[in-house]
Every structure is written in structure tokens, then in C-alpha cells.
Specification:
This protein has 2 domains: 5-20 and 140-188, Endonuclease Iii, domain 2; 27-133, Hypothetical protein, domain 2 (Endonuclease III, domain 1, Orthogonal Bundle). The chain has helices spanning 5-14, 27-37, 42-55, 63-68, 71-75, 81-96, 109-116, 124-133, 146-155, 164-171, 178-188. It has 11 helices and no strands.
Amino acid sequence: MRRDPVMRELIRRHGACGLADDQHTDPYKALVHSIMSQQLSTKAAATIARRFDELFGGAFPGPAQVLAMPEDRLRSVGLSRMKVAFIRDLAGRIHEGSLRLDELNGLSDEDVIRALTQVKGIGRWTAEMFLMFRLHRPDVLPVGDLGIVNAIKKQYRLRKTPSPERMMRIGEAWRPYRSIACWYLWASLDNAPDV
């Protein structure tokens, strides 16, 4: 609040940070849901997630169960062929042990991003949301997040859409709590990220 008057006003307006309010406790489930929700409304993603669980008897399936389920059955819940491939790639890497989700907490932010982006369908944005919402990393600034871009443009009264470099310069004042600053920026848009 002392370093940035714009952020000070956002904090006063929106109160306590709710960054940790909506998160999955299971990292595998969080990643599957992230893949499911890509390019979908929150409502559509929730419907697919519910049908996905129902396909497995109402419980969220483990990686081996996902791998054993025929593709056409997975697609029947509303998943595209590509999303089925992405979810299976994640499940396969976890099942074979090449991706150890239990070890991610001990890695640096960039190493977590590198590990997760090896999975088909998981890009930098998804990895950054995982860092913020699952691992509670306090200093993540997802410069590729359209909501953050729009909020910075609006709150800092910029005429042009800020470049990633400009966003990083503005965000320097928020270190080492850029994740929290992002929550306030999302809140300023009266919405939250779909993670």
C-alpha cells in the first residue's frame, strides 16, 4: 500500500485478499480442471466437471482410471478430442512417474512452470495459476492473463494496452507479493480467474 497508490485504493475498496478461497487441495484434480475449463465459461466447465465425475461413479478418478477409460466415453461428457488427449497426457505422466506433483512444492517457480508445461495442453498461464492458487506462491505476475492486462490498463489509466515489459515494471512495486496484487486487479474487474 505504501509503494503504490493505485494498489492502496484497490486494497481499501476490496478488503481482505481472497486468493486462497477457491482452490483444489488435490494438485492433479486442479490441473485436470484447468485443462477442462480452457476456453469455456465457468458454467460450461462446471457442467463438464460434474459429468466427468459421474462417469467415474461420482468420484474424481485417479490417473490409472482415466487412462483405462475409452476415449469415446471421456468425450461423451463434453470434452473435445484434444482435451481428452491433454488429460490423458497428464494422467500418463503422473502414472508413469515422470511428473511428480508431490515434488513441485520444493521447486522454484520457473522450475514448476518448466515441469508443468511439458504436459500437452498446459501452458505458462495454467502453470502460473497453479503456482498462485495451488502452491500459494506469493510473487507470480501472469503478464499473459487478459484480465490482469485489462485491469492494469484501466487502473493505471494507460492509453495503450501495456506490454509484458511495462507490466513487469509496474509490478516491481508489488514485490514480493505480486500474486496478491493480481487478486486485487482481478477483483477490480468484478470477476475472478477461471482456474
